[in-house]
Amino acid sequence: MPIRPENNLRSRTNIAYELPSTVKSLNDGWLSVCQTAAAASGLLAVVEVVLLTFMKNPVHYTHPHTRAARQALLAFSYCALVFSCSATISSLVLTDEFGELPVRASRKSDPIKQGLFDSSSASLLEVYGARRSWRWVMWHWLFSLTAGVACLVTQILIYVWIEEPLSVQITVSCVAGFGVLPLLHFIPMAVSPSSRRSSVVRSSIIAAATSSQTVGSMAMV
Fold first, then answer.
1. Best CA proximity match to 60, nearest among 51, 48, 49
2. pTM for this predicted structure
3. What is the gyration radius of the CA atoms in the chain, in angstroms?
4. What are the tens digits of pLDDT across the range 150-191?
5. If you count Cβ atoms within 10 Å of the first and of the last residue's Cβ in the chain, which end, N or C, has fewer?
6. How far apart are CA 132 and CA 129, in angstroms?
7. pLDDT at 81
8. Transmembrane segments in this chain: where (predicted)?
9. Which DSSP string do the residues of 139-160 spell out, in sequence order?
């Protein structure tokens, strides 16, 4: 079957093409964040497997506790594992998306001739080849990563409150509250202008990834 001219033109790749510096900076930043978050969420998933094995062993429960507390502990353990796996998958999808963006951009003429773009950074990436679906994948990723961290912290607190003395309960609760403070950085996203929303999300994901690595290290210890 002969190739139609428009398809043939679309498949041509300019191997000497380079992204504009601003677009390249945005793309490289997102790519770095995605790779970091993939490693962080993968670490969380490994930690959750270890904790789930620990939580299901009745030998590790020496104090009387209600059945509801045990069920809540297991529920948060399973949820944290699922959310961590979900965040890993989403981050890998986004890594592939941003890794392929320079190739897509090389197959089209530069859409911005004057060097000025009056819109958000997310729209700028889409102009140069990012698919619009990357936005909902990003929100899915962000929610999964945040929920995974929250579930991990919650299950640690539940176990501490049903097994440890009061002094340990208060100390761990204070430390856990301090550890999840970076998650409050997500709140300004609801009121931030659309032109800044993408950068706010990216910095928020870095904070969540850092927090998850810290909590994961504490759990493994």
1. 51
2. 0.71
3. 22
4. 899 999 998 888 888 889 889 999 998 898 888 777 665 543
5. N
6. 9
7. 92
8. 30-55, 75-94, 141-162, 168-187
9. HHHHHHHHHHHHHHHHHHHHHH
C-alpha 200/C-alpha 93 separation (Å) is: 20
| Site of tokens 């197959």 | 107
Please name the residues in contact with 24: beta carbons below 8 A apart, sequence gap of 6 or more.
Answer: 18, 102
* Domain boundaries, given as residue ranges, for the chain: 19-220
Written as six digits, the tokens of 29 are 């930043």
Is-contact 124 117, C-beta < 8 A? Answer: yes
Q: What is the pLDDT of residues 118-153, one digit of tens each?
A: 567 777 788 777 888 888 898 999 899 889 988 999
CA-wise closest residue to 84 among 31, 149, 179, 159: 149
* Token pair 């969420």: residue: 41
% of the chain residues with pLDDT over 70 = 71
DSSP state of 191: T
What is the rounded CA–CA span in Å between residue 154 and residue 161? 10
Calculate ∠ Cα 75-137-149, nearest 5°.
35
CA end-to-end span of the chain, whole Å?
A: 62
Q: CA 72, CA 32: separation in Å to the nearest integer? A: 36
Comparing CA positions, the residue from 208, 192, 35, 13 lying closest to residue 106 is 13
| Amino acid (1-letter code) at residue 113 | K
Tokens of 98: 């941003």
